[in-house]
Amino acid sequence: MKNLFLTGSALAGLALSITPGLAAEKAEVLTNYANIAQAKYKDSLATAQTLQHAVDTLIASPSAEALTAARQAWLAARVPYQQSEVFRFGNAIVDDWEGKVNAWPLDEGLIDYVDATYGGPSDENALAVLNVVANSAFDLSGKSIDTSAITPDLLSETLHEADGVEANVATGYHAVEFLLWGQDLNGTDHGAGNRSWTDYAAGDNCTNDHCDRRGDYLKAATDLLVSDLEWMAAQWDETGAARSTLLADENAGISAMLTGMGSLSYGEQAGERMRLGLMLNDPEEEHDCFSDNTHNSHYYDGLGVQNVYLGEYIRVNGELVSGPSLSDLVVAANPALDSEMRVKLATTMRALGRIKSTAEAGFSYDQMLAQGNTAGEALIMGGVNGLVDQTRSIERVVTLLSLDGLEFEGSDSLDNPSAVFE
Length: 422
Known about the structure:
There is one protein chain. By secondary structure, the chain is mainly alpha-helical. The protein has helices at about 20-60, 65-85, 90-100, 150-160, 175-180, 210-235, 240-250, 250-280, 295-310, 325-335, 335-360, 365-370, 375-400, 410-415; strands at about 5, 135-140, 145, 310-315, 320, 405-410. Helix 4 crosses helix 6 and helix 9 packs antiparallel against helix 11 (about 335-360). The chain is globular, with a radius of gyration of 22 Å.
């Protein structure tokens, strides 16, 4: 993935002096940012624990109602977690960890049964249709691996990114999502995955075989998600490593905030998660492809970026966490740029809100991706354009705060579109 380099020369006309006393204000901004991170990860943990309880209920007493409840708990868990993605890119401790809980896209055939049209092993991934649920052993690099007991350690230490293949996603939200919804076989037509609750039923009521092992996998993946979120929430507490690293160097801390905002806005969300899927007209490029929840993932990613600039976050219990913000730093030096940044963030959220509300009304993100669907393309590109445009203002903030040299993640879909089809 290409990087977008920010240089003072490119934006020299916007360089301004910063008012005295800014160092103390930066410390307050960083503390509030860390408090918001802690709140978001605590909310992510709490909602994942609710999901864990729902999964335990589904496995113990399978029913259509229990499956629906588990799905609703998964959807609710995505709301705070997606808002936390803005802490990636600039905070190494988050970046090094994130692949455990939110890696995508995945070759779901590694985990469980898939439709015959899915294909088979490939040169890129020999384990693409391993189906761990159906097999108590498999060979990995010439070594026999015992999978008779499906445990969190098996998933995290052996299966996740097995053979060094990133598509072998065995853990995290999307592994759980697949086990709750199953494949979405609707292409660019409306509709999500349609796994039956009987995939977890006992005895003769079991469909698609190995229901007990499927339940074991679902429980192991959910328990692992909870433990991973417990770990990350602890990193942001008063003595946590993430908070300590952030506060150790004020300029580096502010740089981390802006790197997260710019990289998520530009290369990750506008590029890899939105523009690329539209260019390929491929529903497999949806972020939450099994549940058709991508419209919400995009919305809450965007909200996370806005949260960081404004220095505020509304917790799942309605509590407002707020304090000194990047906006406060910018307005002290250049009120016009602060206004520009706020307007652009709001414009992006309106565009992402249109995608969200339209999908909730029945025009799903899958359909928006379809070739020749001009209305869908306009909706998605509204979000893409807003995210790209706000990144340009984030660049100006970088220059204003004398933080030149930051690198934002890029994407071929934005920087070199022809390379996407090579």
